[in-house]
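ok here's Solute carrier family 22 member 16:
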Amino acid sequence: MSVERIFDEFGHFKRFQACLYFAAVFQAIACGIHYLASVFLVERPNFVCAPPGNITDVLYGNHTGASLEEVLPFFKPANGPMVVRTAVGQQWELSTCQRTQRINPTDFTYEQVVNRTTEKCDENDRYVYDHSEVYQSIVTDWDLVCDREWLAKLCQPTFMMGVLVGALVFGDIADRVGRRRVLMITSLCQFVFGVSVAFMGNYYLFMVVRFLLAMVSSGYLVVVFVYVTEFTGNKVRTWTSMHVHAAFAAGVMMVAITGYLVRTWWIYQIILSTCTSPFLFFCWKFPETPFYLMAKGRLQETQVLLDSIARFNGLEPGRLRAEDLLEPKEALLEKEVAPGRAQPAESERKLSILDLFGTWRMAWRTVTVWAVWFIGSLGYYVFSLGSVNLGGNQYINLFLAGAVEFPSYLIGCYAMDRVGRKRTCAPALLLAGTACMLIIVVPKDIEVLVIILSMTGKFAIAIAFGLIYLYTCELYPTIIRSLAVGSGSMMCRVGSIVAPFCVYLADIWQYLPQLIVGILAFIIGVLTLLLPETLGEPLTSTMEEAEALGRKNSPDQGKKDPEEGMEMN
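and the structure:
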């Protein structure tokens, strides 16, 4: 099919495509929201184990008060316990996960040499939380601290597992029932599941509904990339596909703003889930893509769509007929039966993931591309989720982590078309690795410099993460392109699942997440330099053409060993 003729006739990004593009991308904001919402859902304020009885006096260093709530904002577990006296005269030393009773104390002082008995706080005991910063989170509602802390830490990885499942399920459904239906169903379910999360009465129901929310959010994000690509011409496709990520970044910024204004988790969740709800009023008017309609042989519906595009773009309806988009029979016959070949064409053979490793050259390329997908996702979420731990104002940090993506996509698009895909991706990864290493050596008390370096790393990793979609398409031939992008996307999901655990490693050493991301970004950045450049190259159709990418053109190229040359393509 010559469906690309549509854009030659009606424009690559005229009024019809622009309205449809911005409407579809608007809902992608919700994906960014739900992917990062857990940052403040599982926020853990200062807390101590509650003592038995009513408290009359509290001591903590130089701070005194009549209640724990007065002193908790100043509490730091590393600086020692809080000392309290109850109405019956008992004295307790309170820590985060245990409490110690003083036996026969002589007076009420912070430090006292007396016998003590220590008991561990368990699920039957209550904790006292500092509500000055976080009024209510799922941690404070369900006591997800101490022995139950791991349940809070499972919130983001479980969501990312749902993202993985959703990408697999809805990507396949979209090929079967159409892009339009999937966009409608997933956007409606995003609203329903998003609001439902706020009303879950216990942790396990909360996790189940969040998993379903992750599936539909991922499904929308995967299909909207295909949808906008099939409605825009190749002259603007790089920009339109890249800037779907910008809508995702806007969602991250929305999380920061809402988290700052609303400190009660279920209200915060409802607001985030309803901010893109206007999309539900017009998504049912979305048309199916011409590529899908033609692939299914629905010529009458295609003609109606073509006439609608023409009218909306100020052109004469009927100037392009659906039948004109079909390839001539001669071309089809030429593709089906190649002259002088008795074997079936390569595209007729059933392909599998093993074909990505068919030769040494393609195997090396696949490993490198998968590595870029992995580090792109890992770095993106480590910088985003870890931004709240940088020091300073956590809400501003997360807002900046989203805002910095806008210039990264603009510069990334410009560089891709000027200096090339490889020469944009590799330096971006090396810059991200450099930023991570500099964060480690910068003195901890210079918070502003740490934040600047972290945003530099996020800026760089966003460039690599944004361009790898298109770069992967150009590195593989038509017969295996979808499989290459799909397998790369799988590695991306693996990176997003690993990212929260990587962030939690900061409990062992503050800079361990940056060290891991920095080392991997350096190594993968160097490996990316060995990939072939695809700027200005036509899309390949066969494995032989794909393998030849990056080789020097010479008369006896076919006689050379595929492993020769300066590049390991």
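+1. The first strand starts at residue 47 and ends at 49.
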